[in-house]
Write a structure and sequence with these properties.
By secondary structure, this protein is of the alpha/beta class. It has a single domain, classed as Aconitase, domain 4, CATH 3.20.19.10. It is 34% helix and 14% strand. The protein starts with 5 loop residues before the first strand and ends in a 7-residue tail after the last helix.
């Protein structure tokens, strides 16, 4: 998994509440053999258009100023709905490395960290303020998210502090998922196994098969 230490990039606004996993990636895209690397092409496709089918000019994906965005500024309860990890794969496939929202659904946030995406929660007024600060000129008013320093803000401007759990922060900095973190403890696991075999040998005995 790619480590996350510090990124500087264009921040795209999606300040809608309750954007669910169905809206992030339609389920049929996950069952139609779309390669994981290509899911970004279909990310948020159901939100890009107006009711008459035309492209919504106010939607960030239809605005070339947000091309190449690596940070998503979202509304409350982002990623709600299902535990569909494909939704995070689609976000990652779009190039997003950090999602910032007032609240993020627990399972979606967990899946983000498992896939190298930093999921940050900040007060709604702060998220809206960041979106307003970059909207004037997104390519040249980029955000910096520095996980090593736990700070974020406009490049060259004042920085805000943020909090991430120690375990998740260390995993992202080192590019590790939950399995990698567990494997880091192989020596301790083996040590426990050895001592437990001595303490409770009957647990590990294998009864011969009945005739």
């Amino acid at each position: 998994m790619q480590p996350f230490t510090r990124i500087q990039g264009i921040a795209a606004p999606l300040l809608r509440d309750d954007v669910d996993t169905d809206s992030i990636i339609r389920v049929e895209r996950l069952f139609n053999a779309v390669p994981r690397a290509d899911l970004g092409l279909y990310c948020l496709e159901s939100l890009r258009r107006l009711p008459d089918g035309s492209a919504d000019p106010s939607f960030f994906q239809n605005d070339p100023r947000y091309d190449g965005a690596t940070i998503l500024l979202a509304g409350r309860n982002f990623g709600c709905g299902s535990a569909r990890e494909g939704a995070v794969w689609a976000i990652a496939g779009m190039g997003i490395r950090c999602v910032i929202a007032p609240t993020i659904a627990d399972l979606f946030a967990a899946n983000c960290f498992q896939n190298g995406i930093l999921a940050l929660t900040l007060p709604a007024e702060v998220v809206a303020g960041l979106a307003a600060a970059v909207a004037f000129d997104p390519p040249n008013r980029q955000l910096v998210v520095d996980l090593a320093r736990n700070e974020l803000g406009l490049a060259g401007g004042p920085q805000l502090g943020f909090a991430v759990s120690r375990r998740r922060r260390e995993a992202l900095l080192d590019g590790l998922d939950e399995i990698d973190l567990t494997l880091r403890q192989q020596a301790r696991i083996a040590e426990f196994g050895d001592s437990d075999r001595v303490r409770r040998p009957w647990i590990y005995s294998v009864e011969p098969d009945a005739p």
